[in-house]
Design a protein that fits this description.
The chain has 147 residues and is of the alpha+beta class. The protein has a single domain (2-130), classed as Aminopeptidase (3-Layer(aba) Sandwich), CATH 3.40.630.30. The chain contains four helices and five strands, in the order E-H-H-E-E-E-H-E-H. It has helices at residues 12-25, 32-44, 94-108, 125-130; strands at 2-6, 49-55, 58-70, 75-85, 114-115. The protein has a five-stranded mixed sheet, with helices on both faces. The chain starts with a strand and ends in a 17-residue tail after the last helix.
């Protein structure tokens, strides 16, 4: 059975290991210390909410939410920036549990909704759509990189 909880600094070591695997999945070099530092800053400064999926006392997935705002509706929103489930635990509804917990948190806090972006070829799109996310076909998304 999967349990989802909000991560705190006491979960940092285990969470950093998952976060590092997530970054490697996206073709970044492994850097466990940098992953831990990054997450510690987010948690210490209350800059994100990290939900962890746990099976039998072991973290197997996470999602990270950042707060933003809709100027038009004048309401806060969550940006679901990261979602990761370890390979051997995929297709066991863990991603679904994390997404549903994020939706619950959104409702409880009176937020407008959740936004996410994903790669065009990400197979998780089917999961998002099944859980009520709507694909945006009316807008283009642009990004300027300072790198």
């Amino acid at each position: 059975m999967v349990t989802v909880y909000k991560a705190g600094l006491e979960h940092l070591r285990e969470l950093a290991t998952l976060f590092d695997k997530y970054r490697v999945f996206y073709e970044q070099d492994s850097d466990l210390q940098a992953a831990e530092n990054f997450l510690q800053e987010r948690l210490t400064n209350n800059e994100s909410i990290i939900l962890v999926a746990d099976i039998d006392g072991r973290a197997v997935g996470f999602t990270q939410l950042y707060t933003s705002f809709s100027s038009v509706s004048m309401l806060p929103i969550y940006i679901l920036n990261d979602l990761y489930v370890e390979g051997e635990h995929r297709k066991k509804r863990i991603g679904e549990a994390l997404l549903n917990h994020a939706k619950k948190l959104c409702r409880e806090n009176g937020f407008k909704g959740l936004a996410l972006e994903t790669a065009i070829n990400n197979p998780a799109q089917k999961l998002y759509e099944r859980l009520g996310w709507k694909k945006d076909s009316g807008y283009f998304h642009y990004f300027w990189s300072a790198q």
